[in-house]
Write a structure and sequence with these properties.
This protein is an alpha+beta fold. The chain has one domain: Creatinase/methionine aminopeptidase superfamily (Creatine Amidinohydrolase, Alpha-Beta Complex), CATH 3.90.230.10. The chain contains 5 helices and 15 strands. The chain has a 5-stranded antiparallel sheet with strand order 8-7-9-14-15. Strands 1, 2, 4 and 5 form a 4-stranded antiparallel sheet that branches. A 3-stranded antiparallel sheet has the order 3-12-11, with no helix packed on it. Helix 3 packs antiparallel against helix 4. The N and C termini lie far apart (38 Å). Bound molecules: magnesium ion (MG) (2 copies). The site of one magnesium ion has 5 residues, from loops. One magnesium ion binds next to strand 4 and strand 5. This is Methionine aminopeptidase. Monomer. It catalyses: Release of N-terminal amino acids, preferentially methionine, from peptides and arylamides.
């Protein structure tokens, strides 16, 4: 069942998303070679709690941390760890904030130091595909229009779309209906309407689309161990417009990519 939000509820999600955007900015300040990914998690949790909010992911179905940290061939849901970032890595930082009863969710993939041109191109295409998906997320369109736009764009460049993991509605719960796949047919799926709040989050692979789950029960990596990129925004659909509630602006003020 889709929960349609009132304007007041969307406003609360926006306030949650503002804390999230600024948490991402704090994390971005510390993303560099030699940093342990567990340190990034500590920064995020402190920032979120200092702003009177709660990290959405910590304890969610037993997830142990405030961030999902997914390096190189890890697609999503990696654990922060003692691993130190090194030159040439890519790192996806996914974070959620729970504030005034509502969740927000966004992710960003960063290059560390000198990343190969082919991997940088994957990051750029994945980020661009997120915005192409958002363009289709408007009242009167269908969920399949979002996935179609993402899939068409990235597959034309030779990349592949992860199928098993998808975007989602969110609000009082971190994951609500509808599912928002990053692939699909134009004009298919649930109708997008005023009051829907959804997370759009393309997960795009350089090699094959196949994934495997590590034995920790969470970490998802590519089967061929080639890199994967992930960007995410939470958006609200209104009758006459779509608003991107989360922001990457605090990240992009700091990192050149
Ligand atoms: Mg997320
Ligand atoms: Mg999400």
């Amino acid at each position: 069942m889709i929960h349609y939000k009132t304007s007041e509820e969307v406003q609360k999600i926006k306030e949650s998303a503002d804390i999230l955007g600024r948490a991402h900015g704090e994390i971005a300040k510390h993303i560099k070679e030699g940093v342990k990914t567990s340190f990034l998690d500590k920064i995020a949790e402190e920032f979120i709690r200092d702003h009177g909010a709660v990290p959405s992911f910590k304890g969610y179905n037993g997830f142990p941390a405030s961030l999902c940290i997914s390096v190189n061939e890890v697609v999503v849901h990696g654990f922060p760890s003692e691993y130190e970032l090194k030159d040439g890595d890519i790192i996806s930082v996914d974070c959620g904030v729970f504030h005034q009863g509502f969740h927000s969710d966004s992710a960003y993939t960063y290059p560390i130091g000198e990343v190969s041109p082919s991997v940088l191109a994957l990051l750029k295409a994945t980020k661009d595909s997120l915005y192409l998906g958002i363009e289709q997320a408007k009242s009167g369109n269908r969920v399949g229009d979002i996935g179609h736009a993402i899939q068409k764009f990235v597959e034309a460049k030779g990349y592949t779309v992860v199928r098993e993991l998808v975007g989602h509605g969110l609000g009082k719960n971190l994951h609500e209906a509808p599912e928002v796949p990053n692939y699909g047919k134009k004009g298919s799926g649930p109708l997008l309407k005023q009051g829907m709040v959804i997370a759009i989050e393309p997960m795009i692979n350089l090699g094959s689309r196949n994934i495997v789950q590590e034995r920790d029960g969470w970490t998802i990596r590519t089967a061929d161990r080639k890199p994967s990129a992930h960007y995410e925004h939470t958006v609200a659909i209104f009758e006459d417009r779509t608003e991107v509630l989360t922001t990457h602006k605090y990240i992009e003020e700091i990192v050149k990519f």
